[in-house]
Amino acid sequence: MLIGLFFIFALPAIVAKAILSQHWYQSGVTNKGVLIAPRLTYADLNIQLPADINNAGPNWHLGYVLPSQCLTLCQQQLHLLKQSHTALGKYQPRVTATVFVSSSSDASVALDGFIQIPINNAFLQQASAAEYVITDPLGQLVMKYPVANSETDLVVQNKGLLSDLRKLLKLSRVG
């Protein structure tokens, strides 16, 4: 009786240890983007924000790194960036749609309605061209979304970006 009672209480712990040690369990990650680690801020990367961003107060930045050539897929990403900002609904005032512009970015692209943030090579080492990047109101780079290869990938990526951003805004106490 005592041995049976011991196994009833010890069996769940033994099974849990076996599952974890054999890597049969995959953790429940819900984010669609890639978390940027270690902690990096605009200040760490020597990036100065434009005056119009500083005057507006602390906001989240939903940004796109403009590539050296902005072809059809790039134009679609810029359009979806604007649409994503609109789709945020009640969270929209807390987010600023931005475009990260480097010295090698395509200057012929019309960036009406976007705040432009000049970036350097240190930023490009963390997020490559044609990626979406989310930064928090304190200037910390939070998540990035890898380059989409097709229109269908772009739509799926954009839905994940919206889901992640809404979750961040819901749980955030800043901005």
Q: Which stretches of 5+ consecutive residues score pLDDT under 50?
A: none
Main pleated sheet: 6 strands, mixed
Indicate the structural class: alpha/beta
Pattern of helices and strands: HEHEHEEHEEH
Q: Quick check: average pLDDT?
A: 89
Assign a percent range to the helix content.
25-40%
Over all CA atoms, what is the radius of gyration? 21 Å
Instruction: Write down the overall geometry.
Output: elongated
- Secondary structure tally: strands: 6
**Considering the protein shown, what is the CATH homologous superfamily?**
Glutaredoxin
Q: State the separation between the terminal residues, measured CA to CA.
A: 60 Å
CATH class identity: Alpha Beta
- DSSP summary: helix tally: 5
Supply the number of structural domains: 1
Fraction in beta strands: 15-25%
| CATH topology category name | Glutaredoxin
Q: Please tell me the CATH architecture by its name.
A: 3-Layer(aba) Sandwich
Strand order of the largest sheet: 1-6-5-2-3-4
